[in-house]
TrEMBL record:
Domain Butirosin biosynthesis protein H N-terminal: 14-142
Species: Streptomyces flavalbus
A Pfam family the protein falls into: BtrH_N
Matching InterPro entries: BtrH_N (IPR026935), DUF4872 (IPR032369)
Name this protein carries in UniProt: BtrH N-terminal domain-containing protein
Domain of life: Bacteria
Signal peptide: none
Length: 329
């Protein structure tokens, strides 16, 4: 058996911030989950649909692992990433880190993990690994999934080798932090600027505030988009509120990040954005409830109302990001 000593195996609300939090705390850096999410410019929006998909997908954050890349850049940390098509080399990469006394981050497909009771393929799931023995791997996942958990080595190998949307080639990573990280203000302003710029100037119409507007148009048709609305609509709502998003499709995490920022930076524009994201978070929870109700009842009026709220949310978030772009500028 090999385990990294003194790992703080706390499960948080979101998988990537949970894993990165483990790596940071092991090096003596304690940041709240909202601060990790915000410094990583994690907030985004995507309305994703195609002929090959069974049902549309609403995403509220940047693509998997981008948050970690962004955060490492903000903290001036060295992010060491290893990818390979060889399962043996992939395992050797992990063993080298753990035997060297360091927890390691892994990107994998959660479908194959033993402790996941809901079996849905998601190749962008990220965990921290801190130990192994002859049969099991010891991981840290979200609080919802159990925090400190274990899975068989065979299931971990399947999860890491999986191919499909958002998967990586046996990706593992570690973080090395500088002796003196930047001050809070130096970290926050670039994070606000990057997040606002991407949200306000999306390259295609299904991203950022434009994507929310599009979702408001398309969600009204969702009863006709599925053969099983009682399954697919409540599942979509669950993903928005409960599936590792921190609630309200990550808007709760970003609201709390902005609240922490107001304690460091005295700015009326920042306080305005904080207020607007508090409003947006509540409205996203309302949208999820309306979508779930539409699935349960088959009543399209709930989707019509959800579409109207999403139209309003596009404007609210656009205004909030404009305020943040002025803070950062």
């Amino acid at each position: 058996m090999a385990r990294v000593v003194d790992v703080d195996a706390r499960g948080l609300r979101h998988c990537e911030t949970t894993a990165v939090g483990v790596l940071l705390r092991h090096q003596g850096v304690e940041l709240s989950e909202p601060m990790v999410f915000g410094l990583g410019s994690g907030l985004s929006f995507v309305y994703w649909d195609s002929k090959t998909m069974g049902f549309p997908f609403l995403g509220g954050r940047v693509k998997p692992f981008q948050l970690t890349v962004n955060l490492a850049d903000r903290l001036g940390a060295r992010l060491s990433v290893r990818e390979t098509t060889s399962p043996r080399r992939a395992w050797d990469n992990v063993v080298a880190a753990i035997d060297g006394g360091r927890p390691v981050g892994l990107q994998l497909d959660s479908y194959h993990l033993d402790y996941f009771s809901t079996k849905v393929h998601f190749g962008g799931h990220i965990v921290a690994m801190y130990g192994y023995d002859d049969h099991d791997a010891y991981l840290v996942d979200t609080d919802q999934q159990g925090g400190a958990v274990s899975t068989s080595l065979s299931s971990l190998a399947e999860a890491r080798a999986a191919r499909g949307p958002m998967t990586a080639r046996h990706r593992s990573f570690t973080l090395d932090l500088p002796g003196e990280p930047p001050s809070p203000r130096e970290r926050i302003l670039p994070a606000l600027a990057a997040c606002a710029d991407a949200f306000l100037h999306p390259p295609i119409a299904n991203l950022g505030y434009r994507g929310i507007e599009r979702a408001g148009e398309r969600v009204r048709t969702w009863l006709g988009r599925t053969d099983d609305p009682q399954r697919d609509l409540p599942r979509a709502a669950l993903l928005m509120e409960k599936a590792g998003t921190g609630g309200a499709l990550f808007r709760n995490l970003y609201r709390d990040f902005l609240g922490e920022c107001t304690e460091v930076i005295d700015s009326g524009k920042l306080r305005t954005a904080h207020r607007l994201y508090a409003e947006a978070a509540a409205q996203w929870t309302r949208v999820a409830a309306l979508i779930a109700e539409a699935g349960a009842t088959g009543d399209a009026a709930h989707l019509e109302r959800a579409g109207l709220v999403l139209g309003e949310l596009s404007g609210i978030e656009r205004e909030a990001m404009r305020a943040l772009s002025q803070v950062a500028g």
